[in-house]
């Protein structure tokens, strides 16, 4: 039982990380119908900046983190300002290809700037810190991950439901031209979406780096693991991204924990496949994802 | 108050939609804009409200003046702030948002909470139906209610000029009549209206003045009462005599030159 609970706890923490990374995807997708393929590389740059700030420039972690967030927010905003702003009204596919370009540029810049060696990740916690409850070890970093995710989700919920900019973003997501006709500045909405998404994803990346202790230029691929999470939750659903993330995290950790007891023929890599299996299963039942919108139509 | 001078618009740099259209909307007046599909009515509204770039259209000639100032280079946001709001064809409400959220989205350019409150109360008294359904999802409203919501949403910005694109589209006759009365009521409170309509009968019954647009040019402009009497209009737009489309078109073309002289100056 304790083993199971331990796995659930670890799975929830990992799920929260996927949720944060997934939120980045779905906020941008919701605002502009674009899947941002540069998401993983934004996260990569952010974690490298945080790691450098702590290890090379000896900043305290709590200063390094905002610095990393700031850098990715600025990259997100610049990209929106210099490239996407000229693309309003163009087919989403064009913009999608441009984000792949940005992805390649960012990854190259990281290799140029930091080299391709693995470097240690910045962490404010000792590996063993945390406490035990009923035989389950609750690690500090996992607890913080879960806490940060919950607080952030609550803040996002409030933002989307009860603020002017939140309303502007939701309206723009539903009908860009109607939003423009209401005088909503769609450019600001895009900028806001990119800034928010960059910051949230980077936060997810930094938490993931704490978990994996080290980072290298392939670290951005973590975003790909968050991908089944958002597809499963429904691409355009913010709460779907969170729930999808947690489901994926739980499945992958639970299978990893129990796969050694399965017959040898299954092998040891099953936990890497289960998230995708779950995704395919759910999509077969609900093609638009758990919380994705089928368009509302009156009957 | 609003003046279009020889406005020419092309889409994607090649497709002409307006070829020098001139039009004037005085303060507190309802102007009807008639014309067949593809005549350029919607393009004209987009040119005013700044929505052309979204459709890859651009103003290639002429100018648009609002209270004497050029507005044809301004962003849609700025134009709404100056007092012009467009209701798009097909209602285009935010169907996943509630009625209240739709209305508040319409007031996004308004900073003053008291002004939002006033506009909100005005919309609620104009459309009691919406008051009953404040927190229901807009997508579940009936077609007529959705049109009211679309108009109410535009009124939340307290515009001095309201641009209405085909508000009667797809509505039952009694609902068309209600929309007509609502337009009259909005106008009675001092808002000017530019009304684009296929339903010429309805449009001319509420308008003070009418323009007829044909392949991107204004071919006829006259007080609404006179347009209602006009033989060609009766045949062509009101369908009072069938089967004479070509003839009517030809006659309208001949009137093009005279139309310029007849343009109504306030």
Automatic annotation (TrEMBL), chain A:
Chief localization: membrane
GO cellular component: plasma membrane
Pfam family, one: BPD_transp_2
Keywords tagged on the record: Amino-acid transport, Cell membrane, Membrane, Transmembrane, Transmembrane helix, Transport
Membrane topology: Multi-pass membrane protein
Transmembrane segments: 6-29, 65-83, 95-115, 143-160, 189-210, 222-250, 262-285
Transmembrane in keyword set: yes
GO annotation terms (biological process): amino acid transport
InterPro entries reported in the protein's UniProt record: ABC_transp_permease, BCAA_transport_permease
Subcellular location: Cell membrane
Keyword Membrane (UniProt): yes
Gene Ontology MF term list: transmembrane transporter activity
Similarity annotation: Belongs to the binding-protein-dependent transport system permease family. LivHM subfamily.
Name the record gives this protein: Branched-chain amino acid ABC transporter permease
UniProtKB/TrEMBL annotation, chain B:
Superkingdom: Bacteria
Single GO biological process annotation from the record: L-amino acid transport
Cross-referenced PROSITE patterns: ABC_TRANSPORTER_1 (PS00211), ABC_TRANSPORTER_2 (PS50893)
InterPro entries (alphabetical): AAA+_ATPase, ABC_transporter-like_ATP-bd, ABC_transporter-like_CS, BCAA_Transport_ATP-bd_LivF, P-loop_NTPase
Xref: Pfam families: ABC_tran
Full protein name: ABC transporter ATP-binding protein
GO terms for MF: ATP binding; ATP hydrolysis activity; branched-chain amino acid transmembrane transporter activity
Entry-linked Gene3D superfamilies: P-loop containing nucleotide triphosphate hydrolases
Keywords (A to Z) from UniProt: Amino-acid transport, ATP-binding, Nucleotide-binding, Transport
SUPFAM superfamilies (UniProt xref): P-loop containing nucleoside triphosphate hydrolases (SSF52540)
Family, similarity comment: Belongs to the ABC transporter superfamily.
Segments passing through the bilayer: none
First and last residue of the signal peptide: none
Upper classification of the organism: Bacteria, Bacillati, Chloroflexota, Ktedonobacteria, Thermogemmatisporales
Domain ABC transporter: from-to ranges: 2-240
């Amino acid at each position: 039982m304790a083993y199971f609970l331990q796995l659930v706890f670890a799975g929830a923490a990992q799920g929260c990380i996927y949720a944060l990374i997934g939120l980045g995807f779905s906020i941008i997708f919701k605002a502009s119908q674009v899947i941002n393929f540069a998401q993983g590389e934004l996260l990569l740059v952010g974690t490298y900046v945080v790691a450098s700030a702590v290890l090379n420039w000896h900043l305290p972690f709590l200063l390094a983190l905002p610095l990393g967030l700031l850098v990715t927010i600025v990259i997100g905003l610049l990209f929106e300002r210099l490239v996407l702003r000229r693309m309003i009204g163009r087919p989403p596919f064009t913009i999608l290809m441009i984000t792949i370009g940005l992805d390649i540029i960012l990854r190259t810049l990281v290799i140029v700037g930091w080299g391709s060696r693995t470097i240690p990740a910045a962490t404010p916690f000792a590996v063993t810190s945390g406490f035990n409850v009923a035989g389950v070890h609750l690690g500090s970093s996992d607890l913080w991950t879960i806490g940060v995710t919950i607080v952030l989700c609550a803040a996002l919920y409030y933002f989307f439901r009860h603020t002017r900019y939140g309303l502007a973003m939701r309206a723009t997501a539903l009908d860009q031209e109607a939003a423009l006709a209401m005088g909503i500045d769609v450019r600001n909405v895009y900028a806001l979406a990119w800034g928010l998404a960059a910051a949230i994803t980077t936060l997810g990346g930094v938490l993931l780096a704490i978990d994996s202790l080290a980072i290298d230029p392939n670290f951005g691929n973590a975003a790909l693991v968050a991908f089944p999470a958002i597809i499963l939750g429904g691409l355009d659903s913010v709460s779907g991204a969170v729930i999808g993330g947690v489901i994926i995290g739980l499945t992958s950790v639970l299978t990893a924990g129990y796969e050694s007891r399965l017959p040898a023929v299954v092998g040891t890599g099953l936990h890497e496949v289960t998230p995708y299996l779950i995704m395919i299963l759910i999509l077969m039942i609900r093609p638009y994802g758990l919380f994705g919108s089928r368009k509302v139509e009156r009957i | 108050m609003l003046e279009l001078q020889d406005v020419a618009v092309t889409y994607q740099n090649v497709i002409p939609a307006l070829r020098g259209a001139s039009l004037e909307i005085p303060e507190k007046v309802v102007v009807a804009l008639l014309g067949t599909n593809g005549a350029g009515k919607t393009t004209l509204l987009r040119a005013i409200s700044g929505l052309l770039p979204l459709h890859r259209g651009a103003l290639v000639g002429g100018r648009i003046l609002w209270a004497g100032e050029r507005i044809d280079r301004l962003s849609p946001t700025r134009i709404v702030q100056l007092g012009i709001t467009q209701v798009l064809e097909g209602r285009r409400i935010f169907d996943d948002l509630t009625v209240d959220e739709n209305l508040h989205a319409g007031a996004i350019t308004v900073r003053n909470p008291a002004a939002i409150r006033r506009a909100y109360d005005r919309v609620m008294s104009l459309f009691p139906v919406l008051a009953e359904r404040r927190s229901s999802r807009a997508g579940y409203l009936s077609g007529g209610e959705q049109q009211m919501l679309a108009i109410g949403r535009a009124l939340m910005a307290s515009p001095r000029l309201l641009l209405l694109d085909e508000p009667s589209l797809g509505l039952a006759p009694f609902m068309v009549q209600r929309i007509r009365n609502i337009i009259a009521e909005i106008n009675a409170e001092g808002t000017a209206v530019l009304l684009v309509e296929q339903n010429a009968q309805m449009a001319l019954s509420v308008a003070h003045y009418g323009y007829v647009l044909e392949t991107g040019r204004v071919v006829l402009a006259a007080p609404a009462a006179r347009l209602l009497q006009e033989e060609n209009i009766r045949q062509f737009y009101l369908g009072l005599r069938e089967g004479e489309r070509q003839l009517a078109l030809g006659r309208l073309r001949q009137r093009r030159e005279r139309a310029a002289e007849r343009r109504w100056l306030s």
